[in-house]
Amino acid sequence: MLSLVAMLMPNWMDPEYLLNWLGDWALWGTAAVVFIECGLLFPILPGDSLLFAVGLFIAHGTIDVPLWLACVILTVSAFLGNVSGYYIGRALGTTLFKNPNARFLKPKYIEQTHEFFERYGPRALVLARFVPIVRTFITIVAGAGQMDPRKFFLWTGIGAVLWATGITLLGHALGRVKFIHDHLESALILLVLISLIPMLVEYLLAKRRARNTPPSDTPAAPKHAATNHLND
Asked: Are 120 and 126 within 8 A, CB to CB?
């Protein structure tokens, strides 16, 4: 039966197909994908589902490496990817995002990421790990906004551990469940929904805080001032 994932996206977006195609290089290929998605301005990659599938494949011995080693390699790749994106942002700012008809470098992505940073401050670097597209461009915004490097490294490191290690461990744990192994496509779709839970919780908490905060007569800061919050 043609998998649901394959029907919805090209083969290179199907983590099961991609890992089988990479063969003995599956772990290193995943590390490369994670690095690219986290820092090299290419957001349309199967980061979450690929990490989950790696954990599952390790559980079944298809990828023959220790789980701890895979977690270290993937976490370091995620961290270094974000560091690369940060310094690209410091060097080039947002000058690459000028064409509204661009396939990937759309100005609206930067605007959305600015708003994300304005709402959550530095912890956005952790939350954004679980949000496709935003996790690619948030490091560019952090660099363009001259976020303090030490603070950036701290928060993006925390995010790398929670995302790369956390999802790989989840895939490994659930990979021992026969139903998950036999219905990988459905499990990957469920993973996408689960990955949105931190954002949903944060959204609900933000709404609750907004209701409990008395109104202010101070005018709201313009969007372009969002980077002022990066070092808060």
From this structure: no
CA 12/CA 19 separation, integer angstroms: 9
Residue range 45-66: mean pLDDT, rounded: 87
How far is it, in rounded angstroms, from Cα 85 to Cα 94?
Answer: 12
Angle between helical axes of 67-92 and 166-175 (0-180°, round to 10): 150
Distance CA 129, CA 7 (A): 26
Structure tokens at 227: 């980077």
Question: Contact, 226 vs 115, CB < 8 A?
Answer: yes
Residue 14: phi and psi, rounded to 5, are: -90, 110
What the block records as the tokens of 80 is 């270094």
Q: Summarize pLDDT for 144-202 with one digit per residue, the tens.
A: 777 888 889 999 999 999 999 999 998 888 877 766 666 666 666 666 666 556 556 65
- Per residue in 100-127, is it b (16+ CB within 10 Å) or e — as a string? eeeeebbeebbbbbbebbbebebebbbb
Residues in the chain: 232
Q: Which of 94, 179, 78, 183 is nearest to 129 (CA)?
A: 78
Letter for the amino acid at 46? P
Of residues 33 and 141, more confidence is placed in 33
pTM metric for this prediction = 0.72
